[in-house]
Write a structure and sequence with these properties.
There is one protein chain. The protein is mainly β. 12% of the residues lie in helices and 34% in strands. The chain is built from one helix and four strands.
Length: 89
Amino acid sequence: VQAEIERRGDRRWLGLRLRDNGSGIPPEKRARVFEPFFSERPHGKRSTGLWLCFVRRVIEAHGGIVSVLETPEGGAEFHIEIPETEKLL
């Protein structure tokens, strides 16, 4: 996990990068991982497909954004950006 604070205009933003070392998420499925009940876990692992949907809803409710990228080393990297509020930072 990496964290940083960046100034954009008159606000500061908290940025988080979370990386895993799994098999990654194909480009055509990256947008779908945030949909409710979407799950394509490898090797028969079970999942409700709700966790990333909840993450996106909470982040967006606070005026932030979340995205997922493929890493050159494999795995996936999630970026979360949340604007500063009095209670956040």
